[in-house]
Amino acid sequence: MSIYIADSNFFIQAHRVSYPLDVAFSFWNKVKQLANSGKIISIDKVKDELFDKNDALEEWCILNLPDDFFKDTSTEMVAYSKVINWAVSKSGHFLPNAINEFLDSNEADAFIVAYALADSSNRIVVTQEISEPYRKNKVKIPEACNGLNVQHVNMMDMFRQLGETF
Q1: Average of pLDDT values for 27-54?
Q2: For a surface tag, which of 14, 45, 121, 146 has the fewest beta carbons within 10 Å of its beta carbon?
């Protein structure tokens, strides 16, 4: 069974743009159901990004996601080193600041790719980022996933692949 790993923007864009917590109860109930069944997870670095505003989204996560929802990425350092090597190998394309930002230990992007890479036949990254292969000033998750043969989908494609509606 594939496990979907949610990027920060899965939660943030849903909350702020498409599915506000005070309106779209069925969406958030579906996320809770998928999290409780282990079909969707995330990582500690995403938790750090979500839990820095002390807002309604953070409160929802605390009250509704399983205690083991945010996985420890320190167990995936071999995969993370592969992500580092891939990013450094692209220094002829990406600007130095873009690579530095992507590899920043406080940012989730490289870690979410690494977590998926560590079990790439069973883990799929869920991100709302859109591929921009010619962009030089930002390393997007889809570019790293494509470069490392990691599957990635957007939120709606995840729901479709799971056969879920809300």
Answers
A1: 96
A2: 121
Q: Tell me if 134 sits within 8 A of 34, measured CB to CB.
A: no
For residue 139, give the amino acid letter: V
Half-sphere exposure of 160 toward its Cβ, with a 13 Å CA cutoff? 5
Q: HEC profile for 75-126?
A: HHHHHHHHHHHHHHHCCCCCCHHHHHHHHCCCCCHHHHHHHHHCCCCCEEEE
- CB-based burial of residue 23 (10 Å sphere; 0-12 exposed, 13-18 middle, 19+ buried)? exposed
Span 93-97, average pLDDT: 98
State yes or no: pLDDT of 1 exceeds 90: no
The structural domain count of the chain equals 1
pTM above 0.85, yes or no: yes
CATH number at 116 reads: 3.40.50.1010
- 3-state DSSP assignment of residue 43: strand
Domain that includes residue 121, residue range = 3-162
pLDDT digits (tens, 9 = 90+) for 6-34: 999 999 999 999 999 999 999 999 999 99
Q: List phi, psi (to 5°) of 53.
A: -115, -15
Tokens found for residue 145: 């996933």
Tell me how far the alpha carbon of residue 20 is from its chain's centroid.
19
